[in-house]
Amino acid sequence: MRSTKQYVNLGHNKVENHLKTLQNEFEEEVTPTDTVTYKLRQFFWSNFFGFVYHYFKSRFGKRYPYQSYPKDGDSGVYQIPEHTTLALLSDWATDTIESDLVGRLVARYQADYTLHLGDVYFVGAPKEIRANFLNPDASWPWGKNGSLALSGNHEMYSNGRGFFEELLPRMGVDQAGVRMSQKAGFFCLENEHWRIIGLDTGYTSVRNPIMEIINPPDCRLKDVQIQWLKDQVKLGDPNDTRGIIFLSHHPVFSVFRNAFPKPGEQLRKILGDGNRPVAWIYGHEHRMVIYHTQNLPNSLTVHGRCIGHGGMPVELKAPETHEPIHFMDDRIRERLRRRNVSYNGFAYLELQGPKAIMKYIDMEDTMIFQESWRVEDGKVIVEKADAQ
What we know:
The protein has 388 residues and is of the alpha/beta class. The chain has 9 helices and 20 strands.
């Protein structure tokens, strides 16, 4: 298990994250009884040759092939009951005491489905995937009817191999008594009143260093995913008046750092220009924030919710402006390396026919915020939103 202090002030610098991964592997390999000579030899190999090899392989090597759903058979669109519970976690997979507490707390809620919105730290390597999700002592809370995952940018720091080869085959949902394994980094859960659509913004969040300078990543939805939304999800059907809840790793709106509006612009082209508010839940930023409804330029009308407080240290930082914020959990839990850190937690979504209730629960099992939504003519309407 890792120390939370390793994650304080962690940036998105790829070099730093690869070094962190190699450092942890080195610390696991040596023991207090090892000789100094052995430790130096292992350190030199792991932290120099190992770093150079893994970094250049992941930064300049070929990314894992993009995966989609076949036209016949499993479409990635899954039916769920009218009354369904879902636990949503993002930036959870840190393999720390905090992530372990949150994971085991979610397990006690026995949600029908558990969804991870991305980021396995530090670089989504296969060993890190196993430590957080697959090993016997891993604390990922498997849903009663299944679990699904989205990719964040950290999974792509190692070209997505751990995410696609290790994690997705173990993820999946039950459909009519048959377990359907997750075949791609996006999905749709739907019933008569709601559609919960997981979007892959992680695959396009990273390029090799030269291309990132020439053309910075914008987290756009790849053409294959756009075609899936049109052909298999049938997202642009004007007769479909179900409420839409988008899930992604990257924020479509933020007052803390750069947001990624491109996916919203792409989705508007599919949905049309009609004013159809949607809920959009995301992570990436390590905080818990409820935004006022935003009419995004050239995009959608969005009820934005940031739940990136799953397992990373929630380092408190003042926003550029408070005006768009309805609620933010800015309670101080402790200080780590001279920084104020807030509480980790998750979101618990209950679908109840045309209504939905979202509860935001911290690591001490305290519900700090609750809101209710309803769907009306395809619009998601926030009925009530209150801090507890």
